[in-house]
Amino acid sequence: MAAQCFAKSRFLRWIFITLGLFGSLLFLAVCAAYFLPELYRIESDEANLGTGRTALLLGTSKYLVSGGENPYYRARVDTAARLYKEGVLKKIIASGDSGDDYYNEPRDMRADLISLGVSPKDIFPDGSGTRTLNSVRRCSEIFKEDSPVIISQNFHLKRALMLADALGVKADAFAAPDPDGLVFRIRNGTREIFARILALYEVLEMKL
Nearest CA to 157 among 49, 89, 56, 23? Predict the structure, then answer.
């Protein structure tokens, strides 16, 4: 009986040690996934971008589930149009999901960019940008742009720059304003944790 109790105790201790090590490794992996993108620099002064650049405008839904316009979408489109009219950009790759006739991010971005004064001939929709990795990769491989200015919000851009670096794309990034609402920031901050974990996995997959 004593031998059985001792063996059971050793087994439980081994289980707890294994779980502890796994938990520690998982915690370190999550920390690395979240903080590694923070090493990348977002350009805050558009004068440093030069002129005649190509933008990779990353898409998002134009409308919220509630029916109102998505402020993240509006800020990105407005920022791209402003940089275009100031001469920083000469063309814009509008990359996003074009799932069906009712949901098409590049189509929405193109229409709104035109309404803001961007020439239609300078807008290049990419409906296969279903993920950030796809958008950056296709920018280089399909559109032959290896030094784009990526436009999105700050939290998204750092992840995009990490993926661009892994792909060998020498991108700059310019941040569109973040919405003021606390609910928006909490929701997207939570989502970004999981998105960065996936991005780190994608980077490691490319490197291995």
Answer: 56
Q: How far is CA 197 from the centre of its chain?
A: 12
Note whether 145 and 139 are within 8 A (CB). yes
DSSP state of 131: S
Strands 89-95 and 172-176 turn out to be unpaired
In whole angstroms, what separates CA 79 from the centre of its chain? 16
Task: Tell me the three state secondary structure of residue 187.
Answer: helix
Cα–Cα distance measured from residue 189 to residue 78, given in angstroms and rounded to the nearest whole number:
22
Crossing angle of the two packed helices 2-35 and 182-207, in degrees rounded to 10: 100
Give the ranges where the chain is alpha helix by DSSP (H): 2-35, 71-85, 105-115, 132-141, 154-167, 182-207
Residue 113 to residue 123: CA distance in whole angstroms: 8
Tell me the two tokens of residue 207: 């490197």
- For residue range 141-183, list pLDDT tens digits in order: 999 999 999 999 998 999 999 999 999 999 999 999 998 877 7
